[in-house]
């Protein structure tokens, strides 16, 4: 049988299959370099678990096996749940850098320098940093008209983004680091899907090269840089506080925050709108909720918009009694202040 696995490995697969294991569970257990769907096909051909097996699977296992049978390269990234943090733990959430259009006095890491935001991280010493989407612009992958004079492409944008991620990590050495996709990062996943749909030969080539999971995580090598990852519309639950890039837009500041709070029925924060805003709601049980639009860290003079109603800024929080208490940090006149930590401003 022609395969990536040896005869001995196939024997081990069969043995685990007879014990009731399937697909990804076997791949993980044996640390195999093969897709889970191929494992299930092999077991089916061997007549292992041909009858009565589904009834013995858990709900999660049966759903996973079903999707592996239906879709080659199927993966599902579960939300990240953080249900316990130490007293006084500090959290930072920032979004919409739009690299290579980042505000460089704020985000100097693309140029291997320390910007004001990175300097703040060093002083604040956070326990958790979440970059909440649209960190890179994915300009070359946009379907919008692009400037013919641009001097950068996908390769250069990737390099700049990885530089920024390294610099942030260096200035927040104790922090758990999480990267959440935004709609701009999603351009990569959409481009991959569109290429494969347009010409099935493209998928055959990508699949043969192991690119059946081509996404932001693999493109930027996030695990190698020390970052966890969530896909677009994924989220991080920090002690009941939801962090997600967002997929709603209203016309005024805080209106999107109201829409997001009503969608999630929770406290949380989102980016996407490039605005700062907060919406507060007390439910019928008397519990108060807050949702924040956390602003942007990009330039305010991008080529595709004139005089935008955008505001630069980010969100910080601190844990007390296992609850995250949050506040916005606005950037005014090329300066932001975090009481008790410092004043950070552009050098003129």
Please supply descriptive tags for the structure shown above:
14 strands; alpha/beta; Purple Acid Phosphatase, chain A, domain 2; 20% strand; 11 helices; 348 residues; 6-stranded mixed β-sheet; single chain
What does this structure look like?
This protein is an alpha/beta fold. It contains 11 helices and 14 strands. The chain folds into 2 domains: 7-70, no CATH class; 80-345, Purple Acid Phosphatase, chain A, domain 2. The chain has helices at 7-18, 23-30, 36-45, 59-70, 116-124, 154-171, 186-198, 200-208, 216-220, 222-225, 255-264; strands at 80-82, 90-94, 128-132, 176-180, 228-230, 236-238, 241-243, 267-270, 276-282, 288-294, 313-320, 323-330, 335-338, 342-345. Helix 2 packs across helix 3 (36-45), helix 5 (116-124) packs parallel to helix 6 and helix 7 (186-198) crosses helix 8 (200-208).
Would you summarize the structure shown here?
The chain is 32% helix and 20% strand. By secondary structure, the chain is α/β, with parallel strands linked by helices.
Task: Indicate the topology.
Layout: H1 7-18, H2 23-30, H3 36-45, H4 59-70, E1 80-82, E2 90-94, H5 116-124, E3 128-132, H6 154-171, E4 176-180, H7 186-198, H8 200-208, H9 216-220, H10 222-225, E5 228-230, E6 236-238, E7 241-243, H11 255-264, E8 267-270, E9 276-282, E10 288-294, E11 313-320, E12 323-330, E13 335-338, E14 342-345
Helix pairs in contact: 2-3, 5-6, 7-8
């Amino acid at each position: 049988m022609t395969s990536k696995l040896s005869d001995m490995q196939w024997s081990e697969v069969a043995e685990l299959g007879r014990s009731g294991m399937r697909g990804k569970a076997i791949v993980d257990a044996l640390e195999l370099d093969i897709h889970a769907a191929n494992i299930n096909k092999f077991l089916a051909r061997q007549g292992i678990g041909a009858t009565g097996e589904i009834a013995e699977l858990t709900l999660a296992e049966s759903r996973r096996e079903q999707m592996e049978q239906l879709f080659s390269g199927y993966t599902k990234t579960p939300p990240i749940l953080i249900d316990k943090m130490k007293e006084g733990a500090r959290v930072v959430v920032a979004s919409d850098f739009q690299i290579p259009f980042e505000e460089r006095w704020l985000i100097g890491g693309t140029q291997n320098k320390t910007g004001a935001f990175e300097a703040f991280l060093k002083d604040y010493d956070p326990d958790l940093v979440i970059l909440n989407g649209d960190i890179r612009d994915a300009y070359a992958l946009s379907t919008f008209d692009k400037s013919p004079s641009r001097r950068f492409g996908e390769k250069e944008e990737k390099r700049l983004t990885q530089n920024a991620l390294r610099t942030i990590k260096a200035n927040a050495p104790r922090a758990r680091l999480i990267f959440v996709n935004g709609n701009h990062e999603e351009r990569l996943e959409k481009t991959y899907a569109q290429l494969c749909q347009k010409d099935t030969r493209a998928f055959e080539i990508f699949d043969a090269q192991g690119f059946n999971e081509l996404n932001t995580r693999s493109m930027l090598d996030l695990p190698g840089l020390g970052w966890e990852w969530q896909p677009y519309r994924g989220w991080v639950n920090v002690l009941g506080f939801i962090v997600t890039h967002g997929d709603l837009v209203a016309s005024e500041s805080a209106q999107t925050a109201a829409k997001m709070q009503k969608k999630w029925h929770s406290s949380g924060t989102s980016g996407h709108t490039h605005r700062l805003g907060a919406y507060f709601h007390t439910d019928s049980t008397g519990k108060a909720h807050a949702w924040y639009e956390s602003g942007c860290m990009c330039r305010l003079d991008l080529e595709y918009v004139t005089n935008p109603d955008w505001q630069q800024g980010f969100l910080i929080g601190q844990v007390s009694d296992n609850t995250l208490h949050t506040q916005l940090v606005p950037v005014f006149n090329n300066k932001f202040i975090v009481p008790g930590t410092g004043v950070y401003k552009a050098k003129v």
